[in-house]
Amino acid sequence: MKNYFKKPKYSVALGFILLPMILILLCFIINLFAPPKLQFPQPSTIFSDILLSLSEKSVLQALKNTLLNVFIALAVSFFFGILFGLLLGFNSRRWNLSQPTVDFFRSIPVTFLIPATALLFGIQSIKNVWLLASYPCMLIMVLNVRAGLNKLETERTLSFCIISGSTNPFKKFFKVTLFEILPDISTGFRIALSYCIVIVTVLEYTLVGSENLGIGYLVYDEFNRFNYVRVYSFIFLIGFIGFLLNKIAELIDYYLFRWSKNNSNDFK
Hints:
Oligomer: single chain
Number of domains: 1
CATH superfamily: MetI-like
CATH topology: MetI-like fold
Distance between the termini: 18 Å
Order of helices and strands: HHHHHHHHHHH
Structural class: mainly alpha
């Protein structure tokens, strides 16, 4: 039996079994300290309410709006993060000059930038949500692209130039450099994905982009109605969505970058 759990795929399966057990234990621990009015509902009540909520059009529309914001923010941050990461990261002097600026903006909370975007688009515009979410995710991508370039082995590039007999910079990039930094780009994307879900739902909770209501707004609305079962249902639903999206990204990472030494081979 012990040999089975040494294999990654069996340990992953065990993780799926442990997840509901951990959630049930968490509910029990919270109820030990929560006041009577805020007692955590039974896990079975929450899970049944999740299934019930998924049959409601308003919830499905809010979920669609949230996922749309997440995907737009990820696409914007992915494109500009790689673009700026390559422009700044290829040259050490250029990176050293820009690093203080990157670190400065990386330290500013997204919610503090709401007034700036509200002046441009209005507080209710849906653009505020994906624009604010893409900003920190883009910086994550920039740092990961730079990390990949920093680890680039010059011997590989020199070997390619000798074997191919070409010093064309575009060929060197697409034949060697790109493959070297792809695992770091993938890692940055997976980190940005989790951040993006958190930021989008928090912005929706603060009523930013209320032009198209998302799942974060529903949490806020149900909390004001004192419907705590539905509040916890939406919180768990956000967690499940994040888990599912991360697992999809992990699968894509595994099948596309099997050659990478950083690949954990968790699905073998």
